[in-house]
Records
---
Amino acid sequence: MNDQAIILFAHGARDQEWAAPFAIIKKQLQAARPDTQVELAFQDFMTPSLEAAVAQSAARGARRVVLVPLFMAQGGHLKQDLPLLVGKLREQHPQLELRVMPAIGDAPEILKAITDWVLRSASA
C-alpha cells in the first residue's frame, strides 16, 4: 500500500440508495489503484464524515490525501463549508499533505461526457 489516499467527498442523503453511484466510482478507483486507499465521505446525513475518513486514512498510513468533491458546482458547501473543514483537518493532521480538487462538475471532461450521454439518449 502506498502512502496516498483518495477521498471522494459527496453531499449525502437520507436515502442510502442515493450513494450507490459514488460507491461504484469508489470501487472502480480501488480496482484501478489497488495500492491506494480510496474512501468515500459525506457532508451530511451519511457516514463517514470527511473528518472521520481523513482520520482513518491517516491511521492507515496515508501521508498524502487527495480530496475529490463529487459536486456538480461550487455551491455553499464547497465555497464556505469545505474550506473550514479543510482548515480544521490541516490543524488536526499537520503531517498530511492535503490536496483539494475542484468540484467534479467543473471538469470539462465531465461536462462533455454528460452532454454526449444526453445527446445519445435523446436520439434513441
---
Amino acid sequence: MNREKGLLITIDGPAGAGKTTVSRNLAARLGYTYVDTGALYRGVALAAVRSGIEPDDDEGLARLCDGLSIGFSQQGGQSRLLVNGEDVTDLIRTPEISMTASAVSARPVVRTFLLDVQRDLGSRRAAVFEGRDMGSVVFPDADVKFFLAADLKTRALRRYQELGAAASLEQVEKDMARRDENDTNRALAPLAPAPDAVRIDSTEFSAEAVVEKMLEVIRSTTGEN
C-alpha cells in the first residue's frame, strides 16, 4: 500500500445497493476524492443518445469516444460531470440513460476509452471509486475493495424513492432486474465481486452503519486504530 499518497478504495455493486451515498460519505470521512464511475458511462450514454448512435454500434461509439472530453469538476463542494465542457450531472439519471449506460458499458470500445480515464484519476490515489468492476478489472491492485449488495426489492424501493413519481415501483423493479441480468451476464467485465473484496449486504443497514463497517475494515487493513 502506498499510504503516503493515500489509499485507493473501490466499492462495487448493483444499482440501488447504496453505493453512491456510502461512497460519498466514506470519502468525506477519510478526506478523499469521491469518483462516481457510473456517471462516466452515463455521460457516454447521454452523448450517444443525443448523437443518435445505437448502443451496439461500435463504429459509431468509437467515433463518439474519439471526440469526447469527459471528466469531473468540483463545484460548491460537489462533484459535477462535464461532457465536452457541459455540466450534464442533472441529465444522466433518467431510466432511459440508465438502460443505455448498461448497454454501452458492455462495448469494448467504450470500456477501453473509460479505462484510461479512470486509471488516470486513480493515479492520484486518496480516492474512493464507485462502480461495477472497479476492484475486479479497473483497479485489481486497489488497497481496499468492497462489494455492496442488497436484495432486489430493497434496491428497487430505494431507487423508486429517488425517482419520485417518474416511474412506478413495479417498473423500477422490472428495469433493475433487467439491468442486473445484463450487467451480471455480459461477456466483458461482468458485475461480480473481486476475489479479495469484502462483501457487505446493506439490506438491513443504514448508509451510516455501512460506512462504519467499512472504516473498521480499512483500519484493520492498515493496522490503524
